[in-house]
């Protein structure tokens, strides 16, 4: 289990109601489930459309269940941007 930071941007920040959360999670999938449970359905809906960076590296199409986290990792939650 790793203590990590989840940072929210744009619509994700609005849905979460905070700039970031800290959670203990072994994988990206667990971290996302935890913050969705913590912050509610509005965030869960936005997360389904987001891209993620893990320590500044795009997660891409990798299965979140197979993305291992390590102590101190930072997950950036990036909603789709208009025109981008």
What features would you describe in this structure?
- It is a single chain.
- The longest helix is centred in the middle third of the chain and has 12 residues, at 28-39.
- This protein has a five-stranded mixed beta sheet with strand order 2-1-5-3-4.
- By secondary structure, it is of the alpha+beta class.
- It starts with a strand and ends in a 6-residue tail after the last strand.
- The mean pLDDT is 95.
- It has helices spanning 11-16, 28-39, 41-47; strands at residues 2-8, 20-25, 51-54, 57-58, 74-78.
Chart the SSEs and their pairings:
Layout: E1 2-8, H1 11-16, E2 20-25, H2 28-39, H3 41-47, E3 51-54, E4 57-58, E5 74-78
Parallel strand pairs: 1-5
Antiparallel strand pairs: 1-2, 3-4, 3-5
* Beginning-to-end CA distance, first to last residue: 35 Å
Order of helices and strands: EHEHHEEE
The portion of residues assigned to helices is: 25-40%
Name the shape in a single word. Answer: globular
Q: Major β-sheet, in short?
A: 5 strands, mixed
Strand portion, in percent?
25-35%
- Biggest sheet strand order reads 2-1-5-3-4
User: Number of helical segments?
Assistant: 3
- Average residue-wise pLDDT: 95
Q: Which value, in Å, is the CA radius of gyration?
A: 12 Å
Q: pLDDT under 50 segments (min length 5)?
A: none
Structural class: alpha+beta
Number of strands: 5
């Amino acid at each position: 289990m790793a203590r990590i930071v989840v940072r929210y941007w744009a619509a994700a920040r609005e849905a979460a109601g905070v700039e970031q959360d800290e959670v203990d999670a072994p994988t990206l999938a667990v971290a996302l489930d935890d913050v969705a449970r913590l912050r509610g359905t509005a965030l869960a809906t936005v997360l389904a459309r987001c891209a993620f960076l893990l320590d500044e590296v795009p997660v891409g199409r990798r299965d979140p269940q197979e993305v291992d986290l390590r102590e101190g990792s930072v997950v950036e939650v990036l909603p789709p941007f208009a025109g981008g």
